Amino acid sequence: MVLAYHLILSAYGFWLPNDPRGSWSTFVRNYELYLAGGRATKADTRKSLAAAPHDPAARRLAKDALQYPPVQFTGQQARVIAKGFSHAIQEYAYRVHACAILPDHVHLVVARHTRTIEQIRDHLKSRATRELNTQGLHPLAQHPGTPSPWARKGWHVFLDSAEDIARAIAYVEANPTKAGLRAQRWRFVVPYGG
């Protein structure tokens, strides 16, 4: 039985479908991206591929083919994203046990809810984007139509034991310092009781 989820939200341009380390995509929608980076690199594992050896030049070439520049959230934007998350959490009483907002992606551990994880994912992204717009800090605001700062969809792992949840929380909490940032403590995060 699923008790919680480890949810990963990617900023636009973070992890491309033809990333040389692999991806969970089966095709590349953007023709220019396909020309620059080739076919989708479907992975056959659910484990993180972030540390897998790869060709950084190939990644850069593919990112250069994107329609917009890859999004890199600033610290100020991260705080605004957290404010948007907080609004969504209050609206539906989600229980978030960990959150790390990094420059190009976000990790959350979210307790099971009556809403699906896909609905929660979309709600969090929507409220964060709305808050970025309200504060005049949307990273792609200068582009026509103000494209989303987020990649389509997201990625989630089912957590079905207290041990899985504790491990995911520890991983999420350690992410900022591993990336050379300060530890993060968000007011909407509630401790996991086991």
Q: What is the strand content?
A: 5-15%
Number of strands: 4
What percent of residues adopt helix (DSSP H or I)?
25-40%
SSE ordering:
EHHHEEHEH
Mean pLDDT: 86
Radius of gyration: 17 Å
Strand order of the largest sheet: 2-3-1-4
Tally of alpha and pi helices: 5
Low-confidence stretches: none
Structural class determined from secondary elements: alpha+beta
Largest sheet: 4 strands, antiparallel
Globally, the shape reads globular
Our measurement of the CA-to-CA distance between the termini, rounded to an integer number of angstroms, reads 15 Å
List descriptors.
194 residues; alpha+beta; four-stranded antiparallel sheet; 5 helices
Task: Give an overview of the whole structure.
Helix 1 runs antiparallel to helix 2 and helix 3 (75-92) crosses helix 4 (117-134). The model has no long low-confidence stretch (mean pLDDT 86). The protein is built from 5 helices and 4 strands, in the order E-H-H-H-E-E-H-E-H. It is globular and about 45 Å long. Strands 2-3-1-4 form a 4-stranded antiparallel sheet, with helices on both faces. Helices cover 36% and strands 13% of the residues. It is an alpha+beta fold and 194 residues long.
Structure, briefly:
By secondary structure, the chain is an alpha+beta fold. It has helices at 31-37, 56-64, 75-92, 117-134, 162-178; strands at 4-10, 96-101, 105-111, 155-159. The longest helix is centred in the middle third of the chain and has 18 residues, at 75-92.
